[in-house]
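Standup notes, structure subgroup. Blocker cleared on the 1,6-di-O-phosphono-alpha-D-glucopyranose input:
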Amino acid sequence: MTYRETYEIWKNALKDTEYASDLDRIADDEDLLQDSFYKEMEFGTAGMRGIIGMGTNRMNVFTVKRATQALANNILAHGDPVAGVAVAYDTRKNSDLFARETAGVLCANGINVFMYDTPHSVPQLSFTILELKTTSGVVITASHNPPEYNGYKVYGKDGGQCPVADSDRITEYISQIDDMFHIESMPLDEAERNGLLTYIGHELDEIYFSKVEALCIHPEIMKQQADKLNIVYTPLHGTGNVPVRRVLKDLGIRRLHVVPEQEHPDPAFPTVKAPNPEERQSFDLAVELANRENANLILATDPDSDRLGVAVRNPAHEFVILTGNQIGCLLMDYVLSQKQSTFVGDEFVVKSIVTSDMVDVIAGHYGVELRSVFTGFKFIAEQIKLSEQTGKGKFIFGFEESYGYLQGAFVRDKDAVQAAMMIAEAACWYHSMGRTLYDVLVGLYEKYGWFEDLVLSKTLYGKEGIEKIQNAVRTLRESYPGHIGAFKVLAVRDYLKQERLDMLTGKTEPIDMERSNVLYFELEGGRFIIRPSGTEPKLKSYLSASAAEKTEADSKLAQLKTAASALIDQLTK
Ligand SMILES: O=P([O-])(O)O[C@H]1O[C@H](COP(=O)(O)O)[C@@H](O)[C@H](O)[C@H]1O
Ligand SMILES: [Mg+2]
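Run returned:
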C-alpha cells in the first residue's frame, strides 16, 4: 500500500471526528504526508518513539491505543492481568493524555492498572513495577528528544525495558490489529469504580526516596561536607525536579539553586534546543546561574530523569561539562573504591560496548568482572535479572556513555536521581580530602591511562534520512576500509554478522552475542564504532583514542575526529 492510500484510509475513518482537520492540514505537504504514513512506528532501543501528529509513523492516540492493545494481548497470553501494569508519564506534550489512553485500553481488556496522576520519572516507574510486583509497565516519554517527539517505553515484570523477544512479540500483535480506529477503551472513572484502575499515592515516592538515600555509602561525611557544595541544578522542565531536590535535601545539601527558567514543566521546552544533557547548550542557563551564585557543581537531568549531565570547575575556575563516560568512570571508581573491602569475588559491573574502554581498566583494577552489552539500558537490566536467576554474580554498578548510571538494583533502568545523589556524595567525600571532582578525574586518567572518547551524531530527517543512515552502515559493511585516516584497522567486529575479522591474518571468529546493527573497528591506538540510533534519526559513531600521556591522546582523538567526520560525510552524501 502506498502512503497516499494509507492516508486516505485514515481520512475516511476519521472524517467526522475532531482529527479530520489535522489530516486535512497535511494533505498538501507531500514530504510530511510521506513521512507520516510511509511506515508503522517501530519498537527501537527504548520502545516506540516518534513525532507527535497524525499518521501510522507518528505518536497519536491511535498508534498509542494500538500499541497498548498489542501489549494487552501479550499480557493476556503470557503475563498476569491481575498483577497488572504500572503507568507513568513525563512532562511532554500529550504525555498525560497518552497515559490515560493507555490505562483505558488496558482496563477494557480486564487488566489492572496502577497509575501515577502527576508526572513521574522513568526510574520511579521501574521501581514501582518491582515494588507493586506488576507484570509490566509503561512510561509515556520521549526522554531527551526535541519537543515535537513523544514515546512509549514498555517494561517487563523485572522492572527493565522489554527484552527484544517481548518487543518483537508486541510488534507481531500490532501487525495483527486490522482496525486501529475502534480499539475498545474504558472510561477511567468507570475503571476506578470497578477496581481496575488504582491511582498510586505518595507513599511509593517516599519508599523510593528512602531507597535512593540508603545507597549513600557515607551519609555522615555527606552531612559534614554538605556546606562545601554549592549546586546549581536544572531539571530541564522535566520530572527530576521533585525527586532530585528531595533526595539531596534529605542528605543535607542546603545550597541548591534550581534554574528558575527550567524549573517548571513546559512541553515546548522553550529554553533549550532539545532537553538533552548530552548537548552543551542545555547547560547555558545553568552555567550563567552557577557563575552568579559562585556554585561549584552543576547537575542536569533530562525530562524523564534517567540521564544525568554534570559540570565541574577546573583549576582556572571555569566550568567543564563532563561527558557521559567521564561521569560514569568517576562514579564507578568511587563506588568500587568504597565498597572494595566488602567484595567476596563474585561482583560484576556492566557497560555497553560503545562505552569507554577505561571502564575495563577500572574494573580490572578492583578485580570485578566486567560484562559488555549492546546499547540500551535494558541489556544492563537483563544482566541483573540473569544474575538473580542463576545466583551467579552480584551487581555493583552499570553505566552507558549516553549519560545513564545505576547503582541500586531496586530500579532496573538508568536513574538520574541515584546518579545525582552519587555524584554529590562523591564530591563531598573527595572534598573531605581536599580534592575536587576535577582533580579526581585527572587522577583517574593519570592512574588508568588517558582514554579520550567522543560521540559524533549526524541527524538526517525523514524517509530519505533514515535510508541514508541505513545505507551508510551497509556501505561500510560491504567493504571495510584498511585505514581510518592515519589509523590502521586491525580488526572489524560486525555484530550483525556476529563475527570478528582479523584484518592482519584474514581469520574470522564468531561473536557470542545476539545480532545488532553495529560495526566496531579496532584501530591501532583507538577504536571507531558506528550504528544507527534506535531512538532518534541519527547516525551515531563513537570514537576513542588512548595513550599514556594526555597530549598524545588528545592529538590522536583530534586526528580520528577529522578522519571519521570525512568518512561519515562521504557515506551520507
Ligand atoms: O533516550 P533514553 O534516555 O531513554 O535512552 C535510550 O536511548 C539511549 C541511546 O540509544 P540510541 O543510541 O539507540 O539512540 C540508550 O542508550 C538508552 O539505554 C535508552 O534507554
Ligand atoms: Mg531519558
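Discussed briefly. The two ends are 29 Å apart (CA to CA).
Next: hand off to the docking folks.
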